[in-house]
Amino acid sequence: MTVTRQDIDFLVATARAAADVEIMPRFANLTAADIKTKAHASDFVTVADVAAEEMIERQVRAAWGDDFLFIGEEVMERQPTLIDQLMAAPRAVVVDPIDGTFNYANGVPAFAVIISVVEHGEVTGGIIYDPLRRDAACAIRDGGAFLTGEGRPDRPLRVAPAAPLSEMQGCAGWYYADADERDRLLDGLKQVSNVMNYRCGGQEMRLLVDGRIDYCYYHKLSPWDHAAGWLIHREAGGHSALIDGTPYRPDLRAGGLLMTPDAASWTALAAALRGN
After folding, report:
1. Domain match, 150 and 185 both
2. Is the pTM higher than 0.85?
3. Does residue 242 sit in helix, strand or coil?
4. Distance between CA atoms of 3 and 172, rounded to whole angstroms?
5. What are phi and psi of 98, to 5 degrees?
6. Are residues 182 and 137 in the same domain?
7. What is the extent of the structural domain holding 24?
8. Fewer Cβ atoms within 10 A, N terminus or C terminus of the chain?
9. DSSP annotation of 212
10. Is the pLDDT reported for residue 42 higher than 60?
C-alpha cells in the first residue's frame, strides 16, 4: 500500500467533518460533566474527544474497509496493548481527535486534529488539521509537505533556515521528565533565544514545519501526538532524532524527540539538552 494525495484529501475531509460536527459546536460550551481527568490534574478527556474519534473511525472504515489497525488516543485508554501491533501492521490509522485537550476544555483556541498512516512501521502519510483555520499541514512520505484547505491553493511547507544556537526559538515539552532530567533540559534551554509551549504539539509543529520557529522538543512520545508531525517536518526539509541520536519510530513512548532545521543545528541543541 502507498498513501496517495487522494488519501490525504480524504483524511483532511474526515478531520474537518469531525471538527464541524463534534468539536467546534462544543467548544467553550462544555459543562463540568463533559470533562474528565485522566492521568493527572491537567490531563483531560472530553465528550468531544470521544465523539470525534468515534466519528473518524466510522468514516475511515466506511471508506477503507476493516483491513487496517485503528489506534486512537481514547481507544488506547481502554486497550493499551494496541500499540504493540503498530509496527507489524500492514496499515494503521493513528488518531488524536483533539490534540491540546487542556486548551480545548478551558476555551483556549489552540488545538488540532492529528491523523497519521503507518504502514509496516513506516509513517507514510500525516495531517495536522486546525479546526479554527480549517486548513491542514500535510505530508506524503517522499512526496513533500504542504498546507491545504479553505479553497486556497496548496502552499509548500519548508522549515526555517538554520540559525545559531543562541538565536534559536522554539517549543519544548519538558514537564514529563523526572526532576534531574528536567533540570538538565532547562539548563540546556537557557542557551537558546526563546522557549515557548502552547500545550498543543499539533499547533507547535505547524509553526515548525512552516518555518515560523526553529525547533520542537518532546520528552514523552506517542504516535497519535507525534507521528504525523515528524513526517511533515521531514518532508519540509527538517532533521530530527531522539535526543541520543536514535532514529524516531512511531511506536516509541519515551526518549525525547528533537526536531530542528538541519543536522548541524540538531547536534548543537541536542548537546545542550544532554548537558554536554
Report:
1. no
2. yes
3. strand
4. 30
5. -140, 100
6. no
7. 5-156
8. C
9. S
10. no
